Amino acid sequence: EDYDNAIKFFTRILRLERLDEFDRGTALFKHAFAHYRRARENRAEEAQRRRDPETRNERVEYALGKSPRADFAQVKQDLRGYGALFPRSPYVPEAHYLLALTYDQLQERESSIVELISLLKESDFRPDSIAVAENKPERVRNAARIARMKRLWAYWKKKTGNYLANKFYEDGDHHSAYRIYVALRTIDPSPEWQVPVLYQIGLCEEKQGHFI
């Protein structure tokens, strides 16, 4: 959790000219992730100071580029278009998740929803574009890799959608929550997934006065 040094060293790695595509994608994602975690950590510390009567009026001074807003801006710079640049990276779905949460932290709610809807509806795992493991028959390694990646994509779609939809619902933004829950229905046809999602859709309809 030493995010300052993590950012410093991932920045150095990204400057290497002979870094291959897969390693560059990994380093870029982790560079963005370190910025995101530092921003969240600093935001939490700010909130704690505001709750303390002795420190609530103290002004926090950050070094250049280390404020939460600067860190979140760097996450946006790193991860916008990440899937198009690094389609073989296993971090593509998590990059959508991190970017959606970053927009939410910056109060850019519509951008957060657009990013999430892109993950849920438009961004699909493409088996023909991934790297495959070595030293196994091609048919076997492809099947195993594809199955693993499909589970990974489904996990991040559910995690991202649930987090934001529930947050918007609790904040009283029932229309935004409704949009996300409707998109979440397409992820998994199982009753275990469909029933709670349909229930939340019904709650959103009720809150918006749509009883028919």
Description:
It is a single chain. The protein has helices at 3-14, 21-51, 68-79, 82-85, 92-105, 109-122, 138-170, 174-184, 191-207. The chain is flat, with a radius of gyration of 20 Å. With 212 residues, the chain is an all-alpha fold. The longest helix is centred in the C-terminal third of the chain and has 33 residues, at 138-170. It is built from nine helices and no strands.
Q: Number of helical runs?
A: 9
Q: What assembly state would you assign to the polypeptide chains in this entry?
A: single chain
What is the ordering of alpha helices and beta strands?
HHHHHHHHH
Mean pLDDT: 84
Number of strands: 0
Helix percent band: 55-70%
Work out the radius of gyration: 20 Å
Q: Which segments are poorly predicted (pLDDT under 50) over 5 or more consecutive residues? A: 126-135
- Please identify the structural class as seen in this structure: mainly alpha
Keywords:
single chain, 212 residues, mainly alpha, flat
Topology:
Layout: H1 3-14, H2 21-51, H3 68-79, H4 82-85, H5 92-105, H6 109-122, H7 138-170, H8 174-184, H9 191-207
Helix pairs in contact: 1-2, 2-3, 3-5, 5-6, 5-7, 6-7, 6-8, 7-8, 8-9
Structure summarized in a few sentences:
This protein is mainly alpha-helical. The protein has helices spanning about 5-15, 20-50, 70-80, 80-85, 90-105, 110-120, 140-170, 175-185, 190-205. It has 9 helices and no strands.
